[in-house]
Amino acid sequence: MSTTIATPDAEETCVYCDSLIFDHDPICVRDCEDNCGSPAYFCNYACLSAYIDENDLTTGNACEWMPDQDSCC
Length: 73
Hints:
By secondary structure, the chain is largely without helices or strands. It is built from one helix and two strands. The chain has one helix spanning 45-54; strands at 27-29, 40-42. A two-stranded antiparallel ribbon has the order 1-2. The chain is elongated, with a radius of gyration of 16 Å. The two termini are 22 Å apart.
């Protein structure tokens, strides 16, 4: 899977809170389940975490650990 890496514009804002991302500790996220579409930028991990929680993005996306089996996934 190939993606293009590019630095966002200086005026790029956070997907969650609309702050300028470079005023903080920016994070770039891509949905590679959807053909590695356009990146989404968050100004910090707190906004990313809140976005994940509010959109239930972890539901159904984790391995189920069964201690009686040899592999986790």
